[in-house]
Amino acid sequence: MHESLKVKNIGALKEVYLKELKPLTVLIGASASGKSTLMKIIALMRYIYKRVNIRAYLKNSQIDGAIFYIRFQDYLKDGMKTLITKDSEIEYRVKAVSGREYVISYKDGKLNAAVDIPNEDLTFFKEAWVSEMRNVIPVWASRGSFVSGSSFGFYFDETFNDFDTATDLVKDIDLGYLGMELKIEKGGNNQKKFLISPKDGSYTPIELKFASSGTQTTAPLVTLMRYFANDFSFKDAMRRSIIMMLFEKNLTEKYHPGIELGNLPRYVHVHAEEPELSLDPRSQRLLMDTMVRYTFHEHDKEREMGLVLATHSPYIINHLNVLLRASYSQNGRDSYQYVMPNQLAAYKVADGRLMDLMATDEETGEIVINTFDLSEIMEDIYNDYDALAEGVE
């Protein structure tokens, strides 16, 4: 499956062409450059495509697709209604394994999602969002019902609800990038207790809400990566999305599927804001190893994993070059959580546009991420320091 995206006039994004969404797609840029907005549009269009697939599945199963509504405005959350105007344009294009293309677009204030998909091209998506505000989760989770009815917005709520569901199932999380592990236990009043303990046993376990900021920020992220890679139930998701609706509308007798739901190709897409938050450079590298492990090397084989990152961190981008190079040798593949060249895309978001950072090394012929432009700030610091040295007596 091949996905591409075009965006015009949405917030800081003036004209963007993301020529291919790879299994690992990284967006790097300055603050307020539009990278999180772009990632929200990616998640939005994937979610609409999921809805289109469900509607097509129902239609192919002799159920009137009109009962399954797709309203663009209903999906615009947390300021997106303000950013998307009558001048905004979006084109999301999917090329299926069969070679057929399906296009969903938004232009002149209208969504065009009138797409018919035959059974052989149907897919089932799960779109997950990991908010930059995830450091709040340890405190919220420890309070349980005390925060019922409160909200930090749609995207945080999605992250929190997924984490709550994940920790109903996953009780031990390896945080090896910090030399720690997370254990989930039952507390009082049916609340959960989140305990962080060092792997070397050097001190007594403490509650996650009292751990370092880097631990509080990344433990939910890694928990969600582990959950979606291995423990998320597509069967339950399909039941919620389709089967329960058929029962509620008394349509089960008319339901004659041409393909079993369980046979649809399954994709989980995790969209994570600023994975590097509160982490030192070395821990950022190790965290990236963990995320790559769950994306490519350690997941349920009946699902495909996808990961989109919005980041400021040059360490993450440069470490991905190490994981790319590792893919070119057996020793590298044995030693690292490698990434194959066809699995990775990296883009710099600047001045309302995208710069493709993927390149070919002239000496080795290997695919690399061009990180030259990402060294500008370090060069500026060095030049300023050097210039001041000239005046030192």
Descriptive report:
The chain has 393 residues and is α+β, with helices and mostly antiparallel strands. It has one domain (2-134, 237-389): Rossmann fold (3-Layer(aba) Sandwich). The protein has 10 helices and 17 strands. It has helices at residues 35-60, 80-83, 137-143, 154-169, 213-231, 234-248, 281-297, 314-326, 330-335, 376-389, and strands at 2-10, 13-21, 24-29, 84-95, 101-107, 110-112, 124-130, 172-175, 180-186, 192-198, 206-207, 266-273, 304-311, 344-350, 353-356, 358-360, 367-369. The strands form 4 sheets. Strands 7-12-13-3-14-15 form a 6-stranded mixed beta sheet, sandwiched between helices. It has a 5-stranded antiparallel beta sheet with strand order 2-1-4-5-6. Strand 4 and strand 5 form a beta hairpin. Helix 4 crosses helix 5 (213-231). The longest helix is centred in the N-terminal third of the chain and has 26 residues, at 35-60. The radius of gyration is 22 Å and the shape is globular. The mean pLDDT is 92.
